[in-house]
Amino acid sequence: MPGLAYHAAMSITLSTATYKLAAHLPRQLPADTGREVAFAGRSNAGKSSALNAMCNQHRLAKTSKTPGRTQQLVYFEVQPERYLVDLPGYGYAKVPMDLKAHWQAFINGWLQERQALVGLVIVMDIRHPLREFDLKMLDYAHARALPAHCLLTKADKLGRGAAGNTLLAVRKELGARGTVQLFSSETKQGIDEARAVVTGWLQL
User: Which ranges constitute the DSSP H helices of 3-56?
Assistant: First the structure.
């Protein structure tokens, strides 16, 4: 069983994350080298809160009660050529159709072609798991043979038994397409487990 020093080291490793850039166009992206882990999820699923909790920071990723606030690929640098990437929330904000189409084309191309991408964290509200866009993200990962790890966020909103049942049901439906865990930014449940997955993918 990993000791306290191990957990502290993981916390310190990700706590070095700093804002690098926000990309709205392919030319704004950093060089396609190194290793990147992307965080995807429906608007208000708790994606930004999960990122902040895992990095032991309060304002690294901007949180908002307004769906669709994250409208670009936001890069956070953990170490040189080691990045966490915050993707726009599914169910984008109410914006013009041409802008929505641009986001979708940009993100789709990035997910399919980005060679530095080594893993996908899919953030789902435990009360509404495996919705259409979550499954689409799993398909992207499967098509590229990328590892996918699902966070069932807001686990504190359900009782222990209900949360455990949901975890088992999602794990069964995922099969070999990905792994899954319970997570709560509020109670810190599952943070060490999630950090271990991400730091492993980034080879930190």
Answer: 4-15, 47-54
State the Cα–Cα distance between residues 129 and 124, nearest whole angstrom.
Answer: 5
Which residues face 77 on adjacent strands? 18, 83
Element (H, E) at 197: helix 191-202
d(CA 9, CA 198): 13
pTM exceeds 0.85, yes or no: yes
Note down pLDDT in tens along the chain; length 204 residues.
555 555 555 566 899 999 999 998 899 999 999 999 999 998 889 999 999 999 999 889 876 554 444 568 999 999 999 999 999 887 655 667 777 788 788 888 999 999 999 999 999 999 999 999 899 999 999 999 999 999 999 999 999 999 999 999 999 999 999 999 999 999 999 999 999 999 999 998
Cβ atoms of 121 and 36 within 8 Å: the answer is no
Q: What is the largest CA-CA distance in the chain?
A: 51
| Beta strand spans in the chain (E) | 18-23, 35-41, 73-79, 82-86, 117-125, 148-153, 179-182
Please state the separation of Cα 150 from the chain's center in Å: 8
Q: Assign domain 4-202 to its CATH architecture.
A: 3-Layer(aba) Sandwich (3.40)
